[in-house]
Write a sequence for this structure.
DNA sequence: CGGTGAATTGAATCGCGTCAATTGACGTGG
DNA sequence: CCACGTCAATTGACGCGATTCAATTCACCG
Protein backbone atom coordinates (compact mmCIF):
# COMPACT_ATOMS: atom_id res chain seq x y z
CA UNK A 1 0.00 0.00 0.00
CA UNK A 2 1.59 3.20 -1.13
CA UNK A 3 1.44 6.45 0.72
CA UNK A 4 -0.62 7.78 -2.12
CA UNK A 5 -3.35 5.30 -1.31
CA UNK A 6 -3.73 6.89 2.09
CA UNK A 7 -5.64 9.73 0.57
CA UNK A 8 -9.34 9.37 1.23
CA UNK A 9 -11.12 7.53 -1.52
CA UNK A 10 -12.92 10.53 -2.93
CA UNK A 11 -9.94 12.84 -2.69
CA UNK A 12 -9.42 14.50 -6.07
CA UNK A 13 -5.63 14.33 -5.82
CA UNK A 14 -5.96 10.57 -5.72
CA UNK A 15 -6.84 10.37 -9.36
CA UNK A 16 -4.78 13.36 -10.35
CA UNK A 17 -2.33 11.86 -12.70
CA UNK A 18 -0.51 14.90 -13.98
CA UNK A 19 3.17 14.90 -14.71
CA UNK A 20 5.58 14.35 -11.87
CA UNK A 21 6.64 17.90 -12.56
CA UNK A 22 3.52 19.27 -10.93
CA UNK A 23 4.32 21.53 -8.05
CA UNK A 24 2.19 19.65 -5.57
CA UNK A 25 4.48 16.64 -5.96
CA UNK A 26 6.90 18.54 -3.77
CA UNK A 27 4.65 17.86 -0.79
CA UNK A 28 4.37 14.60 1.05
CA UNK A 29 1.01 12.94 0.92
CA UNK A 30 -0.50 14.10 4.19
CA UNK A 31 0.56 17.66 3.52
CA UNK A 32 -0.72 17.35 0.00
CA UNK A 33 -4.12 16.35 1.29
CA UNK A 34 -4.08 19.30 3.62
CA UNK A 35 -2.94 21.58 0.84
CA UNK A 36 -5.55 20.27 -1.49
CA UNK A 37 -8.37 20.85 0.96
CA UNK A 38 -7.54 24.51 0.89
CA UNK A 39 -8.73 24.86 -2.67
CA UNK A 40 -11.35 23.69 -5.05
CA UNK A 41 -11.88 22.20 -8.43
CA UNK A 42 -12.79 24.21 -11.45
CA UNK A 43 -14.21 23.21 -14.80
CA UNK A 44 -14.09 25.33 -17.91
CA UNK A 45 -15.47 24.71 -21.36
CA UNK A 46 -14.00 25.90 -24.66
CA UNK A 47 -13.54 29.64 -24.78
CA UNK A 48 -14.23 30.34 -21.10
CA UNK A 49 -11.72 32.62 -19.50
CA UNK A 50 -9.98 31.78 -16.25
CA UNK A 51 -8.99 35.40 -15.74
CA UNK A 52 -8.52 38.57 -17.74
CA UNK A 53 -5.53 40.81 -18.22
CA UNK A 54 -5.46 43.06 -15.14
CA UNK A 55 -7.62 40.89 -12.90
CA UNK A 56 -6.40 40.64 -9.31
CA UNK A 57 -4.06 37.66 -9.00
CA UNK A 58 -5.30 36.06 -5.79
CA UNK A 59 -5.37 32.43 -6.82
CA UNK A 60 -2.93 29.91 -8.19
CA UNK A 61 -4.13 27.16 -10.50
CA UNK A 62 -2.88 23.75 -11.43
CA UNK A 63 -4.09 22.37 -14.73
CA UNK A 64 -5.20 18.76 -14.46
CA UNK A 65 -6.82 18.23 -17.86
CA UNK A 66 -7.31 20.21 -21.05
CA UNK A 67 -5.29 23.03 -22.56
CA UNK A 68 -5.24 26.70 -21.63
CA UNK A 69 -3.81 29.64 -23.54
CA UNK A 70 -2.16 32.61 -21.85
CA UNK A 71 -2.21 35.78 -23.93
CA UNK A 72 -1.98 39.54 -24.17
CA UNK A 73 -4.14 41.74 -26.35
CA UNK A 74 -2.93 45.09 -27.64
CA UNK A 75 -5.27 48.06 -27.85
CA UNK A 76 -5.89 47.53 -31.57
CA UNK A 77 -6.70 43.86 -31.22
CA UNK A 78 -3.34 42.30 -32.03
CA UNK A 79 -2.85 39.28 -29.84
CA UNK A 80 0.20 37.39 -28.65
CA UNK A 81 -0.18 34.02 -27.01
CA UNK A 82 2.57 33.77 -24.44
CA UNK A 83 2.11 30.12 -23.54
CA UNK A 84 -0.04 27.06 -23.95
CA UNK A 85 -0.57 25.28 -20.66
CA UNK A 86 -0.86 21.52 -20.51
CA UNK A 87 -1.84 19.23 -17.64
CA UNK A 88 0.72 19.58 -14.86
CA UNK A 89 1.38 23.24 -15.62
CA UNK A 90 0.81 25.95 -13.06
CA UNK A 91 -0.63 29.41 -13.57
CA UNK A 92 -0.75 32.50 -11.47
CA UNK A 93 2.21 32.05 -9.18
CA UNK A 94 3.74 35.35 -10.31
CA UNK A 95 4.60 37.89 -7.67
CA UNK A 96 2.51 40.73 -9.08
CA UNK A 97 -0.80 41.82 -7.66
CA UNK A 98 -2.64 41.49 -10.96
CA UNK A 99 -2.43 39.20 -13.96
CA UNK A 100 -0.36 40.55 -16.81
CA UNK A 101 -2.07 38.15 -19.19
CA UNK A 102 -5.45 36.59 -19.80
CA UNK A 103 -6.02 32.84 -19.53
CA UNK A 104 -8.65 31.03 -21.57
CA UNK A 105 -9.59 27.39 -21.93
CA UNK A 106 -9.13 25.88 -25.39
CA UNK A 107 -11.33 22.85 -24.81
CA UNK A 108 -12.90 21.30 -21.73
CA UNK A 109 -10.52 21.94 -18.90
CA UNK A 110 -10.15 21.02 -15.25
CA UNK A 111 -8.06 22.92 -12.74
CA UNK A 112 -7.26 22.96 -9.07
CA UNK A 113 -7.50 26.35 -7.47
CA UNK A 114 -5.84 27.49 -4.25
CA UNK A 115 -5.92 30.94 -2.73
CA UNK A 116 -2.57 32.55 -3.30
CA UNK A 117 -2.25 33.49 0.37
CA UNK A 118 -2.75 29.88 1.34
CA UNK A 119 -0.31 28.74 -1.29
CA UNK A 120 2.24 31.15 0.06
CA UNK A 121 1.70 29.91 3.57
CA UNK A 122 2.62 26.44 2.34
CA UNK A 123 5.61 27.81 0.47
CA UNK A 124 6.81 29.43 3.67
CA UNK A 125 6.40 26.24 5.68
CA UNK A 126 7.59 23.64 3.20
CA UNK A 127 11.01 24.41 1.75
CA UNK A 128 10.57 21.65 -0.82
CA UNK A 129 7.59 23.51 -2.24
CA UNK A 130 9.52 26.77 -2.31
CA UNK A 131 12.32 25.01 -4.12
CA UNK A 132 9.91 23.45 -6.61
CA UNK A 133 8.31 26.84 -7.22
CA UNK A 134 11.68 28.40 -7.92
CA UNK A 135 12.71 25.61 -10.25
CA UNK A 136 9.48 25.99 -12.10
CA UNK A 137 9.92 29.72 -12.49
CA UNK A 138 13.51 29.25 -13.68
CA UNK A 139 12.40 26.61 -16.20
CA UNK A 140 9.65 28.89 -17.50
CA UNK A 141 12.18 31.67 -17.82
CA UNK A 142 14.46 29.49 -19.92
CA UNK A 143 11.52 28.57 -22.14
CA UNK A 144 10.51 32.21 -22.47
CA UNK A 145 14.03 33.14 -23.50
CA UNK A 146 14.10 30.42 -26.13
CA UNK A 147 10.84 31.79 -27.43
CA UNK A 148 12.38 35.23 -27.79
CA UNK A 149 14.85 33.72 -30.22
CA UNK A 150 12.03 32.10 -32.17
CA UNK A 151 9.92 35.26 -32.30
CA UNK A 152 12.80 37.57 -33.03
CA UNK A 153 14.87 35.63 -35.51
CA UNK A 154 13.24 32.58 -37.03
CA UNK A 155 11.36 32.24 -40.31
CA UNK A 156 7.78 31.05 -40.54
CA UNK A 157 8.85 27.53 -41.52
CA UNK A 158 11.29 27.32 -38.62
CA UNK A 159 8.72 28.57 -36.14
CA UNK A 160 6.18 25.99 -37.23
CA UNK A 161 8.70 23.15 -37.14
CA UNK A 162 9.81 24.22 -33.67
CA UNK A 163 6.22 24.44 -32.55
CA UNK A 164 5.38 20.96 -33.76
CA UNK A 165 8.36 19.35 -32.07
CA UNK A 166 7.52 21.31 -28.92
CA UNK A 167 3.97 20.06 -28.81
CA UNK A 168 5.14 16.61 -29.75
CA UNK A 169 7.41 16.57 -26.74
CA UNK A 170 4.77 17.90 -24.36
CA UNK A 171 1.62 16.24 -25.61
CA UNK A 172 2.61 13.87 -28.39
CA UNK A 173 1.81 10.16 -28.23
CA UNK A 174 2.19 6.97 -30.23
CA UNK A 175 -0.49 5.46 -32.44
CA UNK A 176 -1.05 1.70 -32.25
CA UNK A 177 1.11 1.39 -35.35
CA UNK A 178 3.84 3.40 -33.64
CA UNK A 179 2.88 6.54 -35.50
CA UNK A 180 4.28 9.79 -34.11
CA UNK A 181 1.04 11.61 -33.34
CA UNK A 182 0.72 15.24 -32.33
CA UNK A 183 -2.59 16.73 -31.19
CA UNK A 184 -3.32 20.33 -32.16
CA UNK A 185 -6.34 21.20 -29.99
CA UNK A 186 -5.86 24.92 -30.63
CA UNK A 187 -7.06 26.72 -33.77
CA UNK A 188 -4.73 27.84 -36.58
CA UNK A 189 -5.33 31.39 -35.38
CA UNK A 190 -4.11 30.42 -31.92
CA UNK A 191 -0.99 28.82 -33.36
CA UNK A 192 -0.40 31.96 -35.41
CA UNK A 193 -0.77 34.23 -32.39
CA UNK A 194 1.63 31.98 -30.51
CA UNK A 195 4.25 32.09 -33.26
CA UNK A 196 3.88 35.74 -34.21
CA UNK A 197 2.42 34.88 -37.64
CA UNK A 198 -1.03 34.95 -39.27
CA UNK A 199 -3.35 32.00 -39.54
CA UNK A 200 -2.92 32.06 -43.33
CA UNK A 201 0.83 31.70 -43.03
CA UNK A 202 0.43 28.86 -40.53
CA UNK A 203 -1.90 27.12 -42.93
CA UNK A 204 0.46 27.56 -45.86
CA UNK A 205 3.46 26.27 -43.93
CA UNK A 206 1.48 23.25 -42.80
CA UNK A 207 0.65 22.40 -46.39
CA UNK A 208 4.31 22.87 -47.28
CA UNK A 209 5.28 20.35 -44.62
CA UNK A 210 2.53 18.08 -45.89
CA UNK A 211 3.74 18.34 -49.49
CA UNK A 212 7.29 17.67 -48.34
CA UNK A 213 5.96 14.50 -46.64
CA UNK A 214 7.32 15.67 -43.30
CA UNK A 215 3.89 15.51 -41.72
CA UNK A 216 0.53 13.96 -42.51
CA UNK A 217 -2.89 15.16 -41.32
CA UNK A 218 -5.23 12.68 -39.71
CA UNK A 219 -7.71 15.44 -38.98
CA UNK A 220 -7.62 19.16 -38.41
CA UNK A 221 -6.59 18.60 -34.83
CA UNK A 222 -4.32 15.60 -35.19
CA UNK A 223 -1.21 15.40 -37.32
CA UNK A 224 1.42 12.74 -37.65
CA UNK A 225 5.11 13.47 -37.90
CA UNK A 226 6.47 11.27 -40.68
CA UNK A 227 9.98 12.69 -40.66
CA UNK A 228 11.14 13.76 -37.19
CA UNK A 229 14.64 14.50 -38.47
CA UNK A 230 13.18 16.73 -41.15
CA UNK A 231 11.29 18.66 -38.48
CA UNK A 232 14.40 18.84 -36.34
CA UNK A 233 16.52 20.10 -39.23
CA UNK A 234 14.03 22.87 -39.93
CA UNK A 235 13.77 23.85 -36.27
CA UNK A 236 17.38 24.87 -36.73
CA UNK A 237 19.22 24.01 -33.55
CA UNK A 238 16.49 25.29 -31.33
CA UNK A 239 14.20 23.13 -29.23
CA UNK A 240 16.36 20.17 -30.13
CA UNK B 1 26.70 54.42 12.45
CA UNK B 2 24.83 52.11 10.16
CA UNK B 3 25.23 48.38 10.00
CA UNK B 4 26.63 48.85 6.56
CA UNK B 5 29.55 50.76 7.94
CA UNK B 6 30.57 47.69 9.88
CA UNK B 7 32.04 46.18 6.76
CA UNK B 8 35.78 46.41 6.78
CA UNK B 9 37.06 49.51 5.08
CA UNK B 10 38.40 47.78 2.02
CA UNK B 11 35.47 45.46 1.58
CA UNK B 12 34.23 45.73 -2.00
CA UNK B 13 30.58 45.50 -0.97
CA UNK B 14 31.07 48.67 1.00
CA UNK B 15 31.24 50.79 -2.09
CA UNK B 16 28.89 48.62 -4.07
CA UNK B 17 26.09 50.99 -4.79
CA UNK B 18 23.92 48.92 -7.06
CA UNK B 19 20.16 49.06 -6.95
CA UNK B 20 18.43 47.93 -3.79
CA UNK B 21 17.06 45.16 -5.98
CA UNK B 22 20.37 43.35 -5.96
CA UNK B 23 20.05 39.88 -4.57
CA UNK B 24 22.72 40.36 -1.95
CA UNK B 25 20.54 42.95 -0.24
CA UNK B 26 18.52 40.05 1.06
CA UNK B 27 21.38 39.21 3.42
CA UNK B 28 22.18 41.04 6.62
CA UNK B 29 25.54 42.72 6.70
CA UNK B 30 27.62 40.13 8.50
CA UNK B 31 26.26 37.39 6.28
CA UNK B 32 26.80 39.56 3.27
CA UNK B 33 30.43 39.98 4.18
CA UNK B 34 30.73 36.24 4.58
CA UNK B 35 28.93 35.67 1.31
CA UNK B 36 31.07 38.17 -0.46
CA UNK B 37 34.27 36.59 0.69
CA UNK B 38 33.29 33.44 -1.13
CA UNK B 39 33.71 35.05 -4.48
CA UNK B 40 35.87 37.44 -6.37
CA UNK B 41 35.78 40.48 -8.52
CA UNK B 42 35.95 40.39 -12.24
CA UNK B 43 36.73 43.07 -14.80
CA UNK B 44 35.87 42.85 -18.46
CA UNK B 45 36.54 45.24 -21.29
CA UNK B 46 34.39 45.85 -24.35
CA UNK B 47 33.69 42.69 -26.30
CA UNK B 48 35.07 40.24 -23.75
CA UNK B 49 32.81 37.31 -23.09
CA UNK B 50 31.80 36.24 -19.61
CA UNK B 51 30.74 32.83 -20.86
CA UNK B 52 29.69 31.14 -24.08
CA UNK B 53 26.56 29.28 -25.05
CA UNK B 54 26.98 25.78 -23.65
CA UNK B 55 29.67 26.59 -21.09
CA UNK B 56 29.21 24.86 -17.73
CA UNK B 57 27.17 27.11 -15.47
CA UNK B 58 29.11 26.88 -12.22
CA UNK B 59 29.18 30.54 -11.19
CA UNK B 60 26.65 33.24 -10.51
CA UNK B 61 27.52 36.85 -11.26
CA UNK B 62 26.27 40.17 -10.00
CA UNK B 63 26.88 43.13 -12.26
CA UNK B 64 28.22 46.13 -10.38
CA UNK B 65 29.14 48.43 -13.24
CA UNK B 66 28.87 48.42 -17.02
CA UNK B 67 26.44 46.71 -19.35
CA UNK B 68 26.37 43.08 -20.47
CA UNK B 69 24.42 41.48 -23.30
CA UNK B 70 22.98 37.98 -23.10
CA UNK B 71 22.43 36.36 -26.49
CA UNK B 72 21.93 33.27 -28.60
CA UNK B 73 23.47 32.64 -31.99
CA UNK B 74 21.84 30.40 -34.57
CA UNK B 75 23.91 28.11 -36.77
CA UNK B 76 23.79 30.52 -39.71
CA UNK B 77 24.86 33.52 -37.65
CA UNK B 78 21.51 35.08 -36.85
CA UNK B 79 21.66 36.47 -33.36
CA UNK B 80 19.02 37.30 -30.77
CA UNK B 81 19.92 39.34 -27.73
CA UNK B 82 17.77 38.06 -24.91
CA UNK B 83 18.59 40.73 -22.35
CA UNK B 84 20.79 43.67 -21.54
CA UNK B 85 22.07 43.51 -17.98
CA UNK B 86 22.60 46.66 -15.96
CA UNK B 87 24.27 47.18 -12.58
CA UNK B 88 22.30 45.29 -9.94
CA UNK B 89 21.30 42.53 -12.34
CA UNK B 90 22.21 38.91 -11.76
CA UNK B 91 23.34 36.31 -14.28
CA UNK B 92 23.69 32.61 -14.15
CA UNK B 93 21.31 31.63 -11.42
CA UNK B 94 19.39 29.31 -13.76
CA UNK B 95 18.92 25.72 -12.74
CA UNK B 96 20.54 24.16 -15.80
CA UNK B 97 24.01 22.70 -15.84
CA UNK B 98 25.14 24.78 -18.79
CA UNK B 99 24.49 28.27 -20.05
CA UNK B 100 21.80 28.48 -22.69
CA UNK B 101 23.13 31.87 -23.76
CA UNK B 102 26.38 33.71 -24.13
CA UNK B 103 27.21 36.80 -22.07
CA UNK B 104 29.47 39.57 -23.35
CA UNK B 105 30.53 42.92 -21.95
CA UNK B 106 29.46 45.96 -23.95
CA UNK B 107 31.92 48.37 -22.34
CA UNK B 108 34.14 48.21 -19.29
CA UNK B 109 32.36 46.05 -16.79
CA UNK B 110 32.77 44.91 -13.20
CA UNK B 111 31.13 41.86 -11.70
CA UNK B 112 31.07 39.89 -8.50
CA UNK B 113 31.48 36.17 -8.97
CA UNK B 114 30.43 33.44 -6.58
CA UNK B 115 30.63 29.72 -7.12
CA UNK B 116 27.15 28.43 -7.75
CA UNK B 117 27.53 25.71 -5.12
CA UNK B 118 28.43 28.33 -2.54
CA UNK B 119 25.56 30.50 -3.67
CA UNK B 120 23.20 27.61 -3.27
CA UNK B 121 24.50 26.88 0.18
CA UNK B 122 23.55 30.41 1.14
CA UNK B 123 20.17 30.04 -0.53
CA UNK B 124 19.56 26.92 1.54
CA UNK B 125 20.55 28.60 4.78
CA UNK B 126 19.04 32.05 4.33
CA UNK B 127 15.36 31.92 3.41
CA UNK B 128 15.41 35.64 2.64
CA UNK B 129 17.93 34.98 -0.12
CA UNK B 130 15.86 32.12 -1.49
CA UNK B 131 12.84 34.40 -1.50
CA UNK B 132 14.78 37.15 -3.25
CA UNK B 133 16.05 34.69 -5.82
CA UNK B 134 12.52 33.52 -6.54
CA UNK B 135 11.19 37.06 -6.83
CA UNK B 136 13.96 37.88 -9.21
CA UNK B 137 13.23 34.87 -11.39
CA UNK B 138 9.52 35.68 -11.40
CA UNK B 139 10.23 39.29 -12.35
CA UNK B 140 12.53 38.18 -15.17
CA UNK B 141 9.84 35.84 -16.38
CA UNK B 142 7.30 38.65 -16.52
CA UNK B 143 9.77 40.78 -18.47
CA UNK B 144 10.49 37.90 -20.85
CA UNK B 145 6.79 37.43 -21.49
CA UNK B 146 6.33 41.11 -22.25
CA UNK B 147 9.19 40.82 -24.69
CA UNK B 148 7.41 37.98 -26.47
CA UNK B 149 4.59 40.41 -27.19
CA UNK B 150 7.05 42.95 -28.53
CA UNK B 151 8.90 40.45 -30.71
CA UNK B 152 5.79 38.70 -31.92
CA UNK B 153 3.38 41.50 -32.56
CA UNK B 154 4.85 44.99 -32.57
CA UNK B 155 6.03 47.09 -35.51
CA UNK B 156 9.57 48.43 -35.81
CA UNK B 157 8.51 51.88 -34.57
CA UNK B 158 6.73 50.41 -31.55
CA UNK B 159 9.69 48.22 -30.67
CA UNK B 160 12.08 51.14 -30.74
CA UNK B 161 9.79 53.35 -28.69
CA UNK B 162 9.33 50.59 -26.14
CA UNK B 163 13.07 50.01 -26.04
CA UNK B 164 13.85 53.66 -25.41
CA UNK B 165 11.37 53.97 -22.57
CA UNK B 166 12.71 50.72 -21.16
CA UNK B 167 16.28 51.94 -21.12
CA UNK B 168 15.14 55.30 -19.87
CA UNK B 169 13.51 53.63 -16.89
CA UNK B 170 16.50 51.41 -16.14
CA UNK B 171 19.43 53.66 -16.95
CA UNK B 172 18.02 57.08 -17.80
CA UNK B 173 19.06 60.20 -15.92
CA UNK B 174 18.46 63.94 -15.85
CA UNK B 175 20.73 66.54 -17.42
CA UNK B 176 21.50 69.66 -15.43
CA UNK B 177 18.76 71.43 -17.40
CA UNK B 178 16.35 68.65 -16.46
CA UNK B 179 16.74 66.98 -19.86
CA UNK B 180 15.47 63.42 -20.11
CA UNK B 181 18.70 61.64 -21.07
CA UNK B 182 19.01 58.05 -22.18
CA UNK B 183 22.40 56.38 -22.67
CA UNK B 184 22.74 53.88 -25.50
CA UNK B 185 26.06 52.18 -24.77
CA UNK B 186 25.26 49.31 -27.14
CA UNK B 187 25.67 49.49 -30.92
CA UNK B 188 22.79 49.85 -33.38
CA UNK B 189 23.40 46.26 -34.34
CA UNK B 190 22.97 45.19 -30.72
CA UNK B 191 19.72 47.13 -30.45
CA UNK B 192 18.56 45.49 -33.67
CA UNK B 193 19.39 42.01 -32.42
CA UNK B 194 17.56 42.80 -29.20
CA UNK B 195 14.43 43.97 -31.00
CA UNK B 196 14.39 41.40 -33.78
CA UNK B 197 15.17 43.99 -36.46
CA UNK B 198 18.22 44.98 -38.54
CA UNK B 199 20.60 47.78 -37.71
CA UNK B 200 19.40 49.66 -40.79
CA UNK B 201 15.81 49.59 -39.59
CA UNK B 202 16.87 50.73 -36.13
CA UNK B 203 18.77 53.60 -37.68
CA UNK B 204 15.82 54.60 -39.87
CA UNK B 205 13.35 54.53 -37.00
CA UNK B 206 15.69 56.62 -34.89
CA UNK B 207 15.81 59.28 -37.58
CA UNK B 208 12.02 59.11 -37.84
CA UNK B 209 11.76 59.82 -34.13
CA UNK B 210 14.32 62.58 -34.54
CA UNK B 211 12.39 64.16 -37.42
CA UNK B 212 9.17 63.92 -35.41
CA UNK B 213 10.98 65.82 -32.63
CA UNK B 214 10.29 62.99 -30.19
CA UNK B 215 13.97 62.51 -29.49
CA UNK B 216 17.19 64.44 -30.01
CA UNK B 217 20.70 63.03 -30.33
CA UNK B 218 23.47 64.43 -28.18
CA UNK B 219 25.89 61.86 -29.53
CA UNK B 220 25.70 58.37 -30.96
CA UNK B 221 25.47 56.93 -27.49
CA UNK B 222 23.33 59.54 -25.77
CA UNK B 223 19.87 60.61 -26.81
CA UNK B 224 17.37 62.92 -25.15
CA UNK B 225 13.67 62.18 -25.01
CA UNK B 226 11.90 65.43 -25.89
CA UNK B 227 8.39 64.01 -25.89
CA UNK B 228 7.92 61.23 -23.34
CA UNK B 229 4.18 61.05 -24.08
CA UNK B 230 4.96 60.61 -27.76
CA UNK B 231 7.22 57.69 -26.93
CA UNK B 232 4.59 56.27 -24.62
CA UNK B 233 1.89 56.57 -27.26
CA UNK B 234 4.03 54.70 -29.77
CA UNK B 235 4.97 52.01 -27.30
CA UNK B 236 1.30 51.16 -27.49
CA UNK B 237 0.17 50.17 -24.03
CA UNK B 238 3.26 48.09 -23.40
CA UNK B 239 6.05 49.01 -21.05
CA UNK B 240 3.92 51.83 -19.69
C1' DC C 1 -28.86 17.81 -46.67
C1' DG C 2 -28.12 22.82 -45.98
C1' DG C 3 -25.76 25.99 -42.95
C1' DT C 4 -22.08 27.80 -40.30
C1' DG C 5 -17.51 28.75 -39.04
C1' DA C 6 -12.81 27.33 -39.70
C1' DA C 7 -9.19 26.14 -42.88
C1' DT C 8 -7.13 26.50 -47.15
C1' DT C 9 -5.76 28.71 -51.34
C1' DG C 10 -4.87 32.67 -54.43
C1' DA C 11 -3.56 37.46 -55.71
C1' DA C 12 -1.99 41.88 -54.51
C1' DT C 13 0.43 44.71 -51.17
C1' DC C 14 3.62 46.28 -47.80
C1' DG C 15 6.95 46.45 -44.10
C1' DC C 16 11.15 45.18 -43.29
C1' DG C 17 15.46 43.06 -44.96
C1' DT C 18 19.32 43.11 -48.17
C1' DC C 19 22.88 45.19 -50.55
C1' DA C 20 25.46 49.14 -51.69
C1' DA C 21 26.95 53.82 -51.32
C1' DT C 22 27.72 57.80 -48.42
C1' DT C 23 28.39 60.20 -44.29
C1' DG C 24 30.04 60.79 -39.80
C1' DA C 25 32.81 59.88 -35.46
C1' DC C 26 37.12 59.21 -33.72
C1' DG C 27 41.79 57.81 -33.12
C1' DT C 28 46.59 58.00 -35.06
C1' DG C 29 50.61 59.55 -37.05
C1' DG C 30 52.78 63.05 -39.72
C1' DC D 1 46.58 70.77 -35.63
C1' DC D 2 45.31 68.61 -39.61
C1' DA D 3 45.15 64.63 -43.03
C1' DC D 4 44.07 60.16 -43.20
C1' DG D 5 42.35 55.49 -42.04
C1' DT D 6 38.97 52.77 -39.90
C1' DC D 7 34.71 51.34 -38.54
C1' DA D 8 29.97 52.41 -37.24
C1' DA D 9 25.86 54.84 -38.55
C1' DT D 10 23.01 56.62 -41.93
C1' DT D 11 20.68 56.80 -46.26
C1' DG D 12 18.99 55.02 -50.71
C1' DA D 13 17.26 51.51 -54.09
C1' DC D 14 15.38 47.24 -54.60
C1' DG D 15 13.61 42.52 -53.38
C1' DC D 16 11.35 39.16 -50.64
C1' DG D 17 8.69 37.02 -47.02
C1' DA D 18 4.83 37.51 -44.67
C1' DT D 19 0.39 40.04 -44.35
C1' DT D 20 -3.93 41.44 -46.18
C1' DC D 21 -7.99 40.83 -48.53
C1' DA D 22 -10.86 37.83 -51.03
C1' DA D 23 -12.60 33.52 -52.61
C1' DT D 24 -13.35 28.73 -52.24
C1' DT D 25 -13.26 24.42 -49.88
C1' DC D 26 -13.73 21.59 -45.97
C1' DA D 27 -15.39 19.71 -41.42
C1' DC D 28 -18.98 19.30 -38.54
C1' DC D 29 -23.69 19.60 -36.61
C1' DG D 30 -28.53 20.32 -36.34
Amino acid sequence: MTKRAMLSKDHPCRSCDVSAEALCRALDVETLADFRNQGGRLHLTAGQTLFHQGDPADCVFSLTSGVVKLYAILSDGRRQIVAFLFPGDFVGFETQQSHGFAAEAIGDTTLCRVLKRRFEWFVDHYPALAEARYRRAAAELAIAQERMVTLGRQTAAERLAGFLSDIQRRAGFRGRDGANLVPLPMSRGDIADYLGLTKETVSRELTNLRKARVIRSHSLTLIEILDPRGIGALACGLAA
